UniProtKB/TrEMBL annotation, chain A:
<feature type="region of interest" description="Disordered">
    <location>
        <begin position="425"/>
        <end position="444"/>
    </location>
</feature>
<dbReference type="InterPro" id="IPR030379">
    <property type="entry name" value="G_SEPTIN_dom"/>
</dbReference>
<feature type="domain" description="Septin-type G">
    <location>
        <begin position="56"/>
        <end position="322"/>
    </location>
</feature>
<dbReference type="GO" id="GO:0071910">
    <property type="term" value="P:determination of liver left/right asymmetry"/>
</dbReference>
<keyword id="KW-0342">GTP-binding</keyword>
<feature type="compositionally biased region" description="Low complexity">
    <location>
        <begin position="425"/>
        <end position="435"/>
    </location>
</feature>
<dbReference type="GO" id="GO:0005525">
    <property type="term" value="F:GTP binding"/>
</dbReference>
<feature type="coiled-coil region">
    <location>
        <begin position="338"/>
        <end position="416"/>
    </location>
</feature>
<keyword id="KW-0547">Nucleotide-binding</keyword>
UniProtKB/TrEMBL annotation, chain B:
<keyword id="KW-0966">Cell projection</keyword>
<keyword id="KW-0132">Cell division</keyword>
<comment type="similarity">
    <text>Belongs to the TRAFAC class TrmE-Era-EngA-EngB-Septin-like GTPase superfamily. Septin GTPase family.</text>
</comment>
<dbReference type="GO" id="GO:0005819">
    <property type="term" value="C:spindle"/>
</dbReference>
<protein>
    <recommendedName>
        <fullName>Septin</fullName>
    </recommendedName>
</protein>
<keyword id="KW-0995">Kinetochore</keyword>
<keyword id="KW-0158">Chromosome</keyword>
<dbReference type="InterPro" id="IPR016491">
    <property type="entry name" value="Septin"/>
</dbReference>
<keyword id="KW-0342">GTP-binding</keyword>
Length: 444, 418
């Protein structure tokens, strides 16, 4: 029951942003606090919410990044107390690949859909410049899938299998000196996309004093390179203390083992050496228990929330801005969803129409050109034949002339002939009469 | 793809529900409840009884104290805390509803209010920069039915039909202390019959896997719609202080299960199903609103029949697909245009060829003609020449003869002389 000490008139200001920035009740103006005169019963709301979540089941996705042989698979087996798939991989992978497996686990009444993604072949190549790319691509692909689902018209978000990576365990080689440049480069590329929890793998290879120095070196290198690793949240009083203590122990130095050794009268997970036995769950031996506490028991939900409200939102914002979406128009007035989509659509339709128009124009141009070409050819043809025709005409004329001259000659000849014949006949006649005369004389 | 794995020891994710619990308490909760019904049905009193507070008091008079000419929609926000859990409660009242002589469209302001809250949420959800999205959507609507004892009024039916797909409707029989249990029973049966007849979808209690819970749910379902009584006054009955209404013939106790269904309503609305009401609003009513809104935006002007089966895409994916379709269409268009072009060119070229062939033929013809004429002329000339030659030869012969003859004559003449 709320004591009615404070007046119920003044409005209650914002409840305060919690670190995750998730959805929460914003009182704002106009909400006044009122006292209750009995037990109403809405204090069961958290339980109602929890019941719903439990019925729905939980899901969690871990990405393990690290060089081959650092014990990623063994650590997962140890963390989740079960034997997951997989044979150890060889060192001869041509590039970095990501292998993901999903498992259904149950503990008490809680069902967990766990997806473990392993980077295969990381750090094995001679040229590692592009090693981080498949990893970034994988993370982005999961974000994209979620974004697409969120943007659908008919969507089923509450039954969507969330594949976004909630935690990235980055395995650091236990060299004892410092981070490799591959580590720095990769973590820098990943820190704005996923919650990175760096861990020192196979830490039973390092002595305690070396380990302390190693951790300091790693932390300072991360800071000086501006790599943002996941910080366990300290805003909730219930867990603030333990979380802030644990933040000081990062990166966790872990040892993984699925083999059991008898210590005292208990069987414990351990690694047996001639000089002693490293117990996985002994906090003096390694930070495995801390990792398990932080990752699973205390902050699993926060990791999911951070992924959704920070990393995913960043991805979404960038993607939408890339596509030209804005929240306000040039006059700083907020766009309504309808306006935004309509504007986009108009732009898009305009583009399409322009393309269509361009193609049409191109064709018109081609047709014109071809027509001109053909016309030219036609003209040439006609010219050719005109020339030929002319030649013909000339030839014909010549022929006509020849004909005429022949005719003339013919005529002249005819005339000559006729004249000659006339003369002849005359001569014959005369000759005939002479002959007659002669004959006559002879007869006398 | 998923495999069941057995755990061989303690892992710790069984603590997840606690983590969720912790975070939700830190966040706080919000709930928006709408009450609709004619004036005087005891809506404000019921709210005060439900939340054990004076939501509407002398300082903040409820809407019933204000006379309205038209239907208003009014919001009151209060912050209540209990057991460490903070709840931001918004009560939406609709003064004036059903009070006019002509109540046509008196549901419209209600629909508009609900839609505008959906729209706010949709816009907030669709921003590029999203912040905290306060959930001001209406999670539940308590609809007050006047205890006439007969059945639903036309207004009741009309209202519920128009709103049952926008909000969770919980119909209540108001002022249940004016009916005897038998009358109440009859009334309830009648109402349920009419609700089914008109296919009105009121809020349904979800089935669970829990046997016990299901039994309780079944009991509640049998008593629907709930008949309630509200009271702002506390009366002493048999040494107990209870909320109730004092009559000369006794006290009608609000929280007595035999007197009315108030306790059931309170338990259901607040203690067990508040979260589910929010979930149904989010997953069903809001999604319906959203998909309708986005479909209208995307398919603005486009053929709706064609697109009915394609609502699973986002508007952007839709545009992508349209772009691809357009590219295909353009390709086809290009091909077609190309074909037509080629064909026309071929035609023209053929024509040109034919024309050329024709001209060539004619030219050949003419040439042949000329040649024939040439030959003819040649022949003629040859003949002429031949004739001429012959004649000339003849003439020469004749001339020779003549010459010979004249010579002989001369000779004879000379002879004679001698």
């Amino acid at each position: 029951m709320l004591s009615s000490g404070s007046s119920s008139r003044h409005s209650v200001s914002c409840l305060g942003l919690n670190r995750s920035g998730g959805r929460f009740a914003v009182a704002g103006e106009g909400a006044r606090a009122v006292p209750l005169s009995g037990h109403v019963g809405f204090d069961s709301m958290p339980d109602q919410l929890v019941n719903k979540s439990v019925n729905h089941g939980f899901c969690f996705n871990i990405l393990c990044v690290g060089e081959t042989g650092l014990g990623k698979s063994t650590l997962m087996d140890t963390l989740f107390n079960t034997k997951f798939e997989g044979d150890p991989t060889q060192h001869n992978q041509p590039g970095v690949q990501l292998k993901s497996n999903t498992y259904e686990l149950q503990e008490s009444n809680v069902r967990l859909k766990l997806t473990i993604v392993n980077s295969v072949g990381f750090g094995d190549q001679i040229n590692k410049e592009d090693s981080y790319k498949p990893i970034v691509e994988f993370i982005d692909t999961q974000f994209e899938a979620y974004l697409q689902e969120e943007l659908k018209i008919k969507r089923t978000l509450h039954s969507y299998h969330d594949t976004r990576v909630h935690a990235c365990l980055y395995f650091i080689s236990p060299t004892g000196h410092s981070l490799k440049s591959l580590d720095l480069v990769t973590m820098k590329k990943l820190d704005s996309k996923v919650n990175i929890i760096p861990i020192i793998a196979k830490s039973d290879a390092i002595s305690k004093s070396e380990l302390a120095k190693f951790k300091i070196k790693i932390t300072s290198e991360l800071v000086s390179n501006g790599v943002q690793i996941y910080q366990f949240p300290t805003d909730d009083e219930t867990v603030a203390e333990i979380n802030s203590t644990m933040n000081g122990h990062l990166p966790f130095a872990v040892v993984g083992s699925t083999e059991e050794v008898k210590i005292g009268n208990k069987m414990v997970k351990a690694r047996q050496y001639p000089w002693g036995t490293v117990q996985v769950e002994n906090e003096n031996h390694c930070d495995f228990v801390k990792l398990r506490e932080m990752l699973i028991r205390v902050n699993m939900e926060d990791l999911r929330e951070q992924t959704h409200t920070r990393h995913y939102e960043l991805y979404r914002r960038c993607k939408l801005e890339e596509m030209g979406f804005k929240d306000t128009d040039p006059d700083s007035k907020p766009f309504s969803l309808q306006e935004t989509y309509e504007a986009k659509r108009n732009e898009f339709m305009g583009e399409l129409q322009k393309k269509e128009e361009e193609m049409r124009q191109m064709f018109v141009q081609r047709v014109k050109e071809k027509e001109a070409e053909l016309k030219e050819a036609e003209k040439e043809l006609h010219e050719k034949f005109d020339r030929l025709k002319k030649l013909h005409q000339d030839e014909k004329k010549k022929l006509e002339d020849k004909k005429k001259s022949l005719d003339d000659e013919l005529n002249i000849f005819k005339q000559k002939k006729t004249a000659a014949e006339l003369l002849q006949s005359q001569a014959q006649q005369a000759g005939g009469s002479t002959t007659l005369k002669r004959d006559k004389e002879r007869k006398k | 793809m998923e495999q069941q794995k057995n755990l061989e020891g303690y892992v710790g994710f069984a603590n997840l529900p606690n983590q969720v619990y912790r975070k939700s308490v830190k966040r706080g909760f919000e709930f928006t409840l709408m009450v609709v019904g004619e004036s005087g049905l005891g809506k404000s009193t019921l709210i005060n009884s439900l939340f054990l507070t004076d939501l509407y008091s002398a300082e903040y008079p409820g809407p019933s104290h204000r006379i309205k000419k038209t239907v208003q929609v009014e919001q009151s926000k209060v912050l209540v805390k209990e057991g460490g859990v903070q709840l931001l409660l918004t009560i939406v009242d609709t003064p004036g509803f059903g009070d006019a002589v002509d109540n046509s469209n008196c549901w419209q302001p209600v629909i508009d209010h609900i839609d505008s809250k959906f729209e706010d949420y949709l816009n907030a959800e669709s921003r590029v920069n999203r912040r905290q999205m306060p959930d001001n959507r209406v999670h539940c609507c308590l609809y007050f039915i006047a205890p006439s004892g007969h059945g639903l009024k036309p207004l009741d039916i009309e209202f519920m039909k128009r709103l049952h797909e926008k909000v969770n409707i919980i119909p209540l029989i108001a002022k249940a202390d004016t009916m005897t249990p038998e009358e109440c029973q009859q009334f309830k049966k009648q109402i349920m019959r009419e609700i089914q007849e008109h296919k009105i979808k009121t809020y349904e209690f979800p089935e669970t896997d829990d046997e016990e819970e299901n039994k309780i749910v079944k009991k509640i379902k049998d008593r629907l719609p709930l008949a309630v009584v509200g009271s702002n006054t506390i009366i002493e009955v048999n040494g107990k202080r209870v909320r109730g209404r004092q009559y000369p013939w006794g006290v009608a106790e609000v929280e007595n299960g035999e007197h009315c269904d108030f306790t059931i309503l309170r338990n259901m609305l607040i203690r067990t199903h508040m979260q589910d009401l929010k979930d149904v609003t989010n997953n069903v009513h809001y999604e319906n609103y959203r998909s309708r809104k986005l479909a209208a935006v995307t398919y603005n002007g486009a053929d709706n029949n064609k697109n009915k089966g394609q609502l699973t895409k986002s508007p952007l994916a839709q545009m992508e697909e349209e772009r691809r379709d357009h590219v295909a269409k353009m390709k086809k268009m290009e091909m077609e245009m190309e074909q037509v072009f080629e064909m026309k060119v071929k035609e023209k070229l053929q024509k040109l060829k034919d024309s050329e062939a024709e001209l060539q033929r004619r030219h050949e013809q003419m040439k042949k003609n000329l040649e024939a004429q040439h030959k003819e002329l040649e022949e003629k000339r040859r003949q002429f020449e031949e004739e001429k030659n012959n004649w000339e030869v003849q003439q020469r012969l004749v001339e020779q003869q003549k010459l010979d003859a004249s010579r002989t004559l001369e000779k004879n003449k000379k002879k004679k002389i001698f």
